[in-house]
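Progress note, project year one: complex with iron/sulfur cluster.
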Amino acid sequence: MNNRNEYTLYSPRYSLSERAKQTSSILRASSVVAYHLLRGSKEKFAASVEITDKCNAGCSFCYVYPSEWDQNERLGGYLQLSPSEHKLKEKNVYETLRRLKSRGVVHVTLVGGETALAPKAIRLASKLFPVVWVVTNGVVKLPRLPNSVTVFVSIDGPPDYHNKSRDPKGFYKNYSYNNLQGMSANIVRNINESERGAYVHITLSKPVIKKFSDTVDWLVKDVRKLRGIIVSGTATKDFEDPCTFSIEDRKDLKKLIESAAEKYGWKLFPFNQPKVNERLFDEKYIISNSSSCSVAQRVESLNYDGSNVGKCVLRDDTLCETCVCNISGLAQAINLVDIRTISGVLRATYG
Ligand code: SF4
Ligand code: SF4
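Model obtained:
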């Protein structure tokens, strides 16, 4: 905390030349984004790419694997390929990344599976694109990464809840770090021991909304290299799903973010500035279908095979009207040239 009681975010050190290099990459990417937005072009300048079909977690809500698959099966990859076939798949990933680069994409978000299991693809992406965001479950150490790469670790709630939700079979139950046990212990250790720290993306399902403040307090207390917190709610396939956010849930989460920002400072929530939260949670801005979603319009979502996975990374069968995905609100706030949001995003692009 600083003397105004605001939480002081971890900020990696860069040499002058590193900062100059990264600034010029960011300016290059920003000018491409601004060009497309100002011209209202239909070009997709960003992409989300699944760089591996393997994962070391067992999330019950996973949209990548069949729900009956356990962590062992997920570790093998969902096509259960032979090692040589997996090598071929790796090649496909590299080709996909190069193809995106040649089409003028400037920002890629790497997803999985678990991205830390595909470090070569991360390194290649960091050479090809000025801005690379890596989404990881944080369970294994990420390799040392170039400055163009920013890491986002996914968290579902407070430590015990997260362990149950992501590691139902207790693969990681014997791990410990400080006062933590299980998968969440590994995650905090990996962030604290990483070179440049990480952003944490909290995605809450309806039953955990009330645990939001506890989750933020935990992260602020235990994660020494915390660079910021991103907040989303889960999206579902139909309104009957008990996890679907109601209008009241949206209002509650918005208020909870506001009170956490009062407590720790708005800088802690770079992608949940007031304009984003208004677009994400207010009833009048609920997105009715993908044709009115900036993410679907601007971001190409591909699997490790280079095939389109649908309107966005959440696949076609996710109902847009249930969506509380941060990026959908973030994209709208950027379109509206909200300076607070843009500066939060620029900060995050210094990987
Ligand atoms: S970490 Fe991601 S890919 Fe892995 S099981 Fe969980 S949701 Fe699925
Ligand atoms: S599910 Fe969400 S992110 Fe995907 S297209 Fe619909 S509103 Fe956009």
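The chain has one domain: 16-349.
The pocket of iron/sulfur cluster (ligand 2) is lined by residues 235, 287, 290, 293, 295-296, 311-312, 314, 318, 320, 323, 325, 328 (CB under 6 Å).
No further modelling is planned for this target in the current period.
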